[in-house]
Design a protein that fits this description.
Low-confidence stretches: none
CATH class of the largest domain: Mainly Alpha
Structural class: mainly alpha
Helix content: 55-70%
Strand content: under 5%
Number of helices: 6
Distance between the termini: 37 Å
CATH architecture of the largest domain: Orthogonal Bundle
CATH topology of the largest domain: Arc Repressor Mutant, subunit A
Number of strands: 2
Radius of gyration: 15 Å
Length: 122
């Protein structure tokens, strides 16, 4: 199943939240993304059906291996692109917003070139 940008954003959000709290619930995603409960509920249903997340009886959401792989890829893109834009002189908040827009459409080849260049810069 190919995820759309919104699905990738949900997975990235779950990853980010899981790094700062013991468990992630739908309401945490609503608060973080500023989305409505019905929107998040629908998205979680689609992500569960696609095998990207599991939801326990307690409402805790966990990434599957497939979901974590996508989330980590998108998060890495976000952090590297944000850093590259800041390095170019873009304000950090603007860089983060722009990286969010770019991270989903950039080819793997272009991203790897940017990542390599940033690593060379130190």
């Amino acid at each position: 199943m190919k995820l759309q940008e919104s699905g990738e954003m949900y997975l990235e959000t779950i990853l980010i939240l899981s790094r700062t709290r013991e468990f992630v619930r739908s309401i945490d995603i609503c608060d973080y993304m500023n989305f409505s409960k019905p929107s998040v509920s629908r998205a979680m249903g689609l992500l569960r059906a696609g095998g990207f997340v599991v939801m326990g009886d307690d409402g805790h959401i966990t990434l599957t291996d497939a979901g974590r792989e996508i989330a980590e890829k998108i998060y890495e893109r976000h952090t590297v692109l944000s850093a590259a834009l800041v390095h170019l002189g873009v304000d950090a908040d603007v860089a983060a917003r722009d990286a969010c827009k770019i991270e989903h459409d950039l080819s793997d080849e272009t991203f790897e070139a940017i990542k390599k260049h940033m690593a060379e810069l130190g």
